[in-house]
Prior knowledge:
Blueprint: H1 2-10, E1 14-17, E2 23-25, E3 33-36, E4 44-47, E5 50-54, H2 59-68, E6 71-72, H3 84-90, E7 93-94, E8 97-98, E9 103-109, E10 115-119, E11 125-126, E12 129-130, E13 135-142, E14 144-145, H4 148-165, H5 186-192, E15 199-200, E16 203-205, E17 213-215, H6 221-239, E18 248-250
Parallel strand pairs: 1-3, 2-18
Antiparallel strand pairs: 4-5, 5-13, 6-14, 7-8, 9-10, 9-13, 11-12, 15-16, 16-17
Amino acid sequence: xxxxxxAQQRGLPWIVLGLGSNVLVKDTGFPGVVIRMxxxxxxxxxxxxxxxxxxxxxxxxxARRTAEAGFAGVERFVGIPGTVGGGIYMNxxxxxxxxxxxxxxxxxxxxxxxxxxxxxxxxSFKYRSSNLEGIVLEAKLGLAEEPPAKLKELQxxxxxxxxxxxxxxxxxxxxxxxxxxxAKSAGTLIDECGLKGFTxxxxxxxxxxxxxxxxxxxxxxxxxxxxxxxxxxxxxKKTGVTLELxxxxxxx
Length: 252
Ligand SMILES: Cc1cc2nc3c(=O)[nH]c(=O)nc-3n(C[C@H](O)[C@H](O)[C@H](O)COP(=O)(O)OP(=O)(O)OC[C@H]3O[C@@H](n4cnc5c(N)ncnc54)[C@H](O)[C@@H]3O)c2cc1C
């Protein structure tokens, strides 16, 4: 609230970030106020089968705590390295599940600091996007009872899949492109164009999963943007598919 007031008083643009796991910030930075959701906004409470969760709670912690409490619905998100607020705004998901399936209510603050509750019916979720505006503060999630041991076993399996199938421990912003409609994923299309390992400056297409572009240590945002353009052009030329960005580019 105070950050929004500051932005308004000074006529500055503002953005909200969670863990920054789905953003690419341009080399010139963001010329305004960055509101970071984290500790202090990470409430977690179970009321029956409803989880009440603060936007700043990391999604993997939500997945583990609900699984330990014996509730299913978000257990598969154990490897999504963002916050619950970022996850709901992006309608994050994996392994056939996404936030839209469990959200029952979202509390948002608009640019003037006004807080309101939106029911699920008032929110439109699509693949990796939503029509939410302003700042997600809190959400209610409708879960279902399931034995903790079963949920934890599944989480172990999914985590092992991530370790083998993605460069999960290297700096990147997750899936660079959205999966296009149709049979082939963005990663498969990029791989079939022979681009795994292709490098521009310090930015490289992962050799493990072609939709992950990793920072080898000294990549600038400009390197990553050039790599994105190169991939987009190459895939369009060779396959006829125009890839759309999933990660958010921030800055002017
Ligand atoms: C290794 C890796 C693996 C990943 N795997 C997956 C996956 O399996 N599935 C998947 O869907 N994603 C995946 N991602 C992408 C990313 O983790 C998710 O999109 C995540 O939900 C983003 O959360 P965040 O808090 O980091 O958001 P940020 O990156 O901080 O922000 C992303 C967007 O959300 C907005 N935002 C953030 N918080 C709020 C808020 N409280 N209110 C309103 N808007 C907000 C920001 O303005 C920005 O536009 C992966 C990323 C990495 C690096």
